[in-house]
Amino acid sequence: MAEKDVPVYDTMHVDLKATGPGRCQVTVTGELDVATTGEARTILRTALDGYRHIVVDLSGLRFCDCSGLSALLAAARNARTVGVELRLRAVPRTLARILRLTGTHRAFTIESVS
């Protein structure tokens, strides 16, 4: 099979759920990478447009590459710009380590590491 014939499987799911007036939870499960980041960016923008308090639950995140980190950082930057509170919940230890090593952990309010 030629390389161009190899399918790219989207192995991520993003769910947006209202949790109260002006509040929502965005749940990210699977792999947040170059192949799946577009959907995550879209859902995060939707959350920023409609809610004042956003929790991003990463308890089901199995992998995050630099494009996934970029999507999360863009959401944090946009949240600050429009005065929205954005928190990360259940950040996987591997991602927490990357955030700490790169100094980008300061861009987020991190509720917990799993």
UniProtKB/TrEMBL annotation:
Location of the STAS domain: 26-114
Source organism, top-level taxon: Bacteria
Matching InterPro entries: Anti-sigma_ant, MlaB-like_STAS, STAS_dom, STAS_dom_sf
Pfam families with a match to the protein in the record: STAS_2 (PF13466)
Annotated SUPFAM superfamilies: SpoIIaa-like
Signal sequence coordinates: none
Similarity comment text for this entry: Belongs to the anti-sigma-factor antagonist family.
Cited PANTHER family: ANTI-SIGMA FACTOR ANTAGONIST TM_1081-RELATED, ANTI-SIGMA FACTOR ANTAGONIST TM_1081-RELATED-RELATED
Protein's UniProt name: Anti-sigma factor antagonist
